[in-house]
Design a protein that fits this description.
This protein is mainly beta. The protein has helices spanning 45-50, 95-101; strands at residues 9-16, 22-30, 73-77, 87-91, 123-128, 131-136.
Length: 137
């Protein structure tokens, strides 16, 4: 979009939970220069990882899920519930960034006793169609 109103805009994604309660939000800055449409991209994975907004509910960018094989992938929590579905596969280069971005201070929603990491035998990490995924067994 080549419009001055949308340069350096902040995109806010919020998830509405059951019974109308807010589950969480994540923000992303959209920096666009006229004519480039973000074509330059990022010069390194480190700068991509530093753009992950701290939140109690994370959205994993598909570019952070890219893989060639399952060994490239790790499971990370994307919300504070520790429930099924609260985990996502990411490329190992971004594992620490997502772990650090998840902030559960003051979280008061539902919580489960579920560990989605494959070492606990409930899930497996796969590389499907070039993207890291966590599948339940």
């Amino acid at each position: 979009m080549n419009c001055p109103l949308f340069r350096n805009a902040v995109v806010l994604l919020c998830v509405l939970g059951t019974a109308g309660s807010w589950f969480g939000c994540a923000a992303e800055t959209n920096s666009q220069d006229s004519g480039t449409e973000n074509a330059q991209g990022s010069s390194s994975e480190e700068s991509d990882a530093s753009a992950i907004a701290v939140s109690s509910n994370l959205v994993v960018d598909d570019s952070h899920r890219m893989c060639a094989e399952a060994a490239d992938c790790r499971a990370v929590y994307i919300d504070c519930t520790n429930c099924e579905g609260g985990c996502e596969g990411v490329n190992s280069q971004f594992e620490t960034a997502y772990e650090e971005a998840l902030n559960c201070d003051g979280f008061s929603g539902p919580q489960c006793d579920y560990d989605c990491h494959p070492s606990f035998g409930l899930t497996q990490i796969l590389c499907e169609e070039g993207l890291c995924v966590v599948r339940e067994l």
